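Technical annex, item 7. During the second reporting period the consortium partners agreed on a shared format for inverse folding records so that results from different sites could be compared directly. Each record opens with the tokenized structure and is followed by the designed sequence. A conforming record, contributed by the partner at site C, is shown below for reference.
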């Protein structure tokens, strides 16, 4: 599933509420530094010169959408109704865009002008957090929703299949620490098989490592979720709500704010 517009929606997101999506990656194919077995956009493709929307194109598309939303809202009685969030996600990793910081600055200006109650959120796979411009841009947002699917190198590589095969969990955790807990941690829990190898971030050992990472990072919120749509690797299992509640419980008992999408 690919998003074919720079600004799309609003749609009701299971995790974020009424969300206007913004696409910074190519509209024709996925572009990501991970190649997750569960990615709703499918597997990565080899493309020589990916065409990204320009900063100006993003600003124009977003302004058009926000104007439309505001005029719709002014036609109905409530000031309460409307957009909850402007979300950067879509056909890959949004922080890969070379003008990411400028685009976030534009977005905040447009949000303040047209829909001041909406939050600006970025769903990111955390792989670009070594870049100061990306960290600065994410700090400007209301919500940085940052991925850590496993706290062990082996399982992170099996699930997320980083394009940079050298990337390790210790590095990612080190990057996440820069936010001093002021971020939302996102983790997809799943089991299955890929390429003859077991996929499972729910084993006792896996959960122990992940709980330890959560304790170290102390995120202000944790979003855990299950696969929801068709995945490129078909041999994956969707976990039950009960199992997700069991995974969340030790953290809830320790005072963490955990939301479950299952
Ligand atoms: S990080 Fe997101 S976009 Fe990239 S492969 Fe994983 S699920 Fe897909």
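Designed sequence (site C submission):
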């Amino acid at each position: 599933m690919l998003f074919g517009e720079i600004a799309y929606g609003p749609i009701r997101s299971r995790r974020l509420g009424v969300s206007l999506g913004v696409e910074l990656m190519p509209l024709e194919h996925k572009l990501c530094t991970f190649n997750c077995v569960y990615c709703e956009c499918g597997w990565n493709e080899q493309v020589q010169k990916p065409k990204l929307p320009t900063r100006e194109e993003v600003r124009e598309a977003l302004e058009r959408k926000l104007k439309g939303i505001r005029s719709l809202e002014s036609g109905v009685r409530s000031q309460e109704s409307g957009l909850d969030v402007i979300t950067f996600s879509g056909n890959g990793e949004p922080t890969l865009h070379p003008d990411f910081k400028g685009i976030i600055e534009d977005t905040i200006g447009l949000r303040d002008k047209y829909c001041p109650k909406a939050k600006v959120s970025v769903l990111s796979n955390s792989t670009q957090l070594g870049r100061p411009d990306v960290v600065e841009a994410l700090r400007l947002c209301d919500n940085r929703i940052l991925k850590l699917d496993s706290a062990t190198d082996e399982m992170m590589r099996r699930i997320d299949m980083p394009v940079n095969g050298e990337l390790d969990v210790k590095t990612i955790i080190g990057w996440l620490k820069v936010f001093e807990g002021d971020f939302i941690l996102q983790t997809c829990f799943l089991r299955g098989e890929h390429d003859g190898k077991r996929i499972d971030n729910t084993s006792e050992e896996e959960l122990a490592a992940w709980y330890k990472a959560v304790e170290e990072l102390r995120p202000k919120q944790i979003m855990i979720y299950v696969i929801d749509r068709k995945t490129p690797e078909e041999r994956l299992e969707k976990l039950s709500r009960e199992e997700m509640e069991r995974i969340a419980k030790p953290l809830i008992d320790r005072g963490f704010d955990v939301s479950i999408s299952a």
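The domain at 7-261 is CATH 3.20.20.70 (TIM Barrel). Residues 42 and 232 are 5 Å apart (CA to CA). All partners now use this format for quarterly exchanges.
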